[in-house]
Amino acid sequence: MKLNDSQIEDLYAFTRKHYVEYYDLQTELVDHLANAIEDQWELKPHLSFEDALQIEFKKFGVFGFMEVVEERQKVLSKKYSKLIWKHLKEYFKLPKIILLISLTVGLYYLIELAIVNRSVLTILLALSLIAYVVDAIIHVKINKAKKNSGEKKWMFEEIIRQYGSGLWLFFVPIQGINILNSSGIDFVEKSPVFIAVFSFVFVLLFMTSYIIQFEIPKKAEQYLEETYPEYKLV
């Protein structure tokens, strides 16, 4: 016996009922449940669809599909981290390494200026805060529009959108200022090596933020199609 289209739709509804909101994971679970139910019918042809489904669902334990969702999230988060590193490595090759060096040198002299005039740090913080607020408003509108569109949700797409929400861009200057303050302005003033290392690390963090917020979302369609062959069709 094979499941019909109506029963397949019932399986999709069943996964949604049990808090699986991502279409890719729903499809994987539906495929697993369908095969398992059909295997049961080979041994017990008179078993009802509902009974066969409940028997199979109990195999997932008391937490149901929750562990499957968490495991997939770990796998895709790891994949996303590798994607960030792939982009970041490009900044250690020509021509992007020129930009990396230029930003580091520029920040070095900016910090020296800030040592003389501490208000420079305050201005940088204010500008980053304004950028964060504007970016957050844009992302809220985009996410709201997507939710109202009724489009299917994909876990990897959700990870890309969440990481690209602008939080990284906001916390980079915050952490930089905290490091400078905790190190003591006198120590920073007398330690060009510290300023140079700090500038390089800060620029790397900033470039990581830029990658997360702009570069990866710009290529989101490409990465989603690579992750889900059926993404373009759906």
From TrEMBL:
Does the record carry Transmembrane as a key word? yes
Q: Does the keyword Transmembrane apply?
A: yes
Question: Which residue ranges traverse the bilayer?
Answer: 91-111, 123-142, 163-181, 193-212
Sorted alphabetically, which keywords does the UniProt record give?
Answer: Membrane, Transmembrane, Transmembrane helix
Q: State the name under which the record lists this protein.
A: Uncharacterized protein
